[in-house]
Amino acid sequence: MIHLVGSGPGDPGLITVKGLRLLEEADAVVYDRLAPQALLRHVRQDAELFYVGKRPGDDQAMKQEEINALLVRLGREGKRVVRLKGGDPYVFGRGGEEALALLEAGLPFEVVPGVTSGIAAPAYAGIPVTHRNLASSVAFVTGHEDPSKGRTDVDWDRVARGADTLVLYMGVGRLGEIAASLVAAGRDPDTPVAVIRWGTVPEQRTVTGTLADIAGRVAEAGMRPPAVTVVGEVVRLREEGLAWYEARPLFGRRVVVTRARAQAGELSRRLEELGAAVVEFPTIEIRPPADFGPLDAAIRELDSFDWIVFTSVNGVGAFLERLVFHGLDVRAVPRRARIAAIGPATAGRVREAGLRVDAVPREYRAEALLEEISGEPLEGRRVLIPRAARAREVLPERLRAAGAKVVVPPAYETVPSAEGREELARRLETGEVDCVTFTASSTVENFAAAFGAGEAARLLAKTRVACIGPVTAAAARERGIRVDAEADEYTIEGLVRAVVGLFAARASQER
């Protein structure tokens, strides 16, 4: 089965539920440049990927006939194939040509519609393509026809009078000619026009004008494809406050997340919700410990512990997974044992498992946790701390100094990662990155190790750096890295607020 799937206009969140499911199940994915690259993360590791380009001058681009032949070949090999196309397959996407080729080959196919850029890009730019008081009709027109035809099939006279709102795809190069044709056909030269480039993604840019001057404004702004053009009175609504997407506090900012890929989702999602373009550079990878022996021994002796202390979400997850490995669940945790967690995220993960949390420090670090439980008699108490194989020794040492018997079995280990190092170095060097975030001292250490401490400090001097708290910030400064913002609350949400505040302060200074 070959599935012609519309990936949507650029924002990976706009793919349909069905399209995403098919992508996850595919044996082979054939994608072009306008399909969001982030969607490829959902593809199975053993699936085949075929990039077919589709950009003029792209030396990796396939001709349409070659793409058709590739789909036929993969289909005949019995594979589940997803042809991932930008926007909607049947709206100026040449999906009809591919479907006909599959039909001729006798292969089964399915079309999964996608959100087309002609609706989505204007919506993200604050322009509804219809409005009860302004536009009761809309027409979608290509501004880039097949050059081999030697003629135009667009009757601009009829188009100009045929709908209140006109949405033009791929017409930036011929904008002056198209605008003149519309005016000649009777459209008022003062008709509002908006050109939206890279709609629905953080690189989105919008230029407005009228039919009389839009070509000059677009040329002056250096606008290039891909872009859609909206012609009609609805464009005026953008200036009335409907431009919600571009008004977000981090719109247009590129922010690097250095968290392990498995844990990056929450931070990346919050930054993207606020308009940032997120670059994930996982400096650590979470793996099982080299030896589960110490943790297994502690689990066999759970009844003997008075306190169980979790210092991270990873520690909670690893502990629970090991319980399941031994055929146990949270009922194995003795009712008399008290549980402490550093930070609300860690505490939340404990509560999700069905366990009570007895202590969460106001400051989410080891020293503050010790203060939180110091009111309890610790002499002779047994304390279990399932955590990373290598971590700060402040908490275990101070608990032992207070008379506690502390067991610290490795529940997981963090392994340095430098995936994407060269690309990130290029972006930092050219000033494409606005901010780099660090969520733990280990992310700082591994970032510095990936580039070398001196080089890391040099590269980061060209951008802004935000840290989740004082321990992480201290680790950065020890390596010569300037810290521009620290979270007031040592959580992901606190770090997000720090990043927003960083750019709000900059905007205020610029004004």
UniProtKB/TrEMBL annotation:
Keywords: Methyltransferase, Porphyrin biosynthesis, S-adenosyl-L-methionine, Transferase. It is an enzyme of class 2 (transferase). One of its GO terms (biological process) is siroheme biosynthetic process. InterPro entries: 4pyrrol_Mease (IPR000878), 4pyrrol_Methylase_sf (IPR035996), 4pyrrol_syn_uPrphyn_synt_sf (IPR036108), 4pyrrol_synth_uPrphyn_synth (IPR003754), 4pyrrole_Mease_sub1 (IPR014777), 4pyrrole_Mease_sub2 (IPR014776), CobA/CysG_C (IPR006366), Siro_Cobalamin_biosynth (IPR050161). Belongs to the precorrin methyltransferase family. PANTHER family: S-ADENOSYL-L-METHIONINE-DEPENDENT UROPORPHYRINOGEN III METHYLTRANSFERASE, CHLOROPLASTIC, SIROHEME SYNTHASE-RELATED. This is uroporphyrinogen-III C-methyltransferase.
